[in-house]
Amino acid sequence: SFILREYSDDEDVIIAGLLHDALEDTDYTPEELEADFGSKVREIVEGVTEALHHERSLHSWSERKEMYLSALQKAPRESLLIAAADKIHNMRSIVEEYSENAALFVKDFTAPIDLIIEKYEKLQFFLNENLRSSIMDEFNHVHVEYMTFLKKVRSTNGNEKTKK
Q1: What rounded mean pLDDT belongs to the chain?
Q2: What is the pLDDT confidence band of residue 157, given thresholds at 50, 70 and 90?
Q3: Residue 162 near residue 116 (C-beta atoms within 8 A)
Q4: Where are the alpha helices (DSSP H) in 48-112?
């Protein structure tokens, strides 16, 4: 939400930013979300939801990322803003937390490094093609740092799952 405030003054976007993981990480339903915050917030949040909480275990990490990209293709512009802000935060946090300990990153994130790189490259391409906002300057800057980090992890860690 703090990142979003720099790029939007729309209250529904800020609220949706706070709630962007609610449907995938909790038992909170889309109907409850709409009753509590309105249909616009629901639509924005659903646009950035990988899979509902009760469906998450039915899909692999890779499938959930593909579902996410598919949802973004149909989502309103506000959802794209939230996706960019969320990934800025995630990429920054990962680089800061794991920059000195690639082995811990490989342990904590079970998806193969090449697959992580592929999914983030697809997301970057999609957002650059579909989101006209100054948030993309920050997204692209952080994305370069994140890709550099992931490629360093791939080249320095002998763990087989980084190569699958």
Answers
A1: 92
A2: confident
A3: no
A4: 61-74, 77-98, 102-108
